[in-house]
Description:
Layout: E1 8-12, H1 18-32, H2 42-56, E2 58-66, E3 69-79, E4 82-88, H3 97-108, E5 113-118, H4 122-130, E6 134-139, E7 150-155
Antiparallel strand pairs: 1-2, 2-3, 3-4, 5-7, 6-7
Helix pairs in contact: 1-2
Amino acid sequence: xxxxxxxxxxxxxxxxxxxxxxxxxxxxxxxxxxxxxxxxxxxxxxxxxxxxxxxxxxxxxxxxxxxxxxxxxxxxxxxxxxxxxxxxxxxxxxxxxxxxxxxxxxxxxxxxxxxxxxxxxxxxxxxxxxxxxxxxxxxxxxxxxxxxxxxxxxxxxxxx
Length: 160
């Protein structure tokens, strides 16, 4: 964990997390990928978070506690061994929160994980590669709504 890491605690997501997680999702994507097409309104994204992500995947929320304030710092969403989402508040990047969320995902899927990320998202690609993921396939963007070329990554524990 970096020397400027920020203590965070993980907890299972609740239904009332939909709004803060949607805000974090939108802010993180805008900061990391300003080139990415917005294919849904904020309202539609909230509905997706409320009715698809939260009830349909295993979501863990990272929170920081500073001066009595609780801040949603990031979240990870798993569907079995598929890492569907890992987002960190843009103002809290490079402080160990993404690594904490990824560790929780690995614990939940000890036999291995797979994920997609956009090819142009070099920060995410570097993050996953630093954490032992290997690129296994490159796609032209035909499989995602944004029509953005992506890359499939896989992580397997040593010896598997």
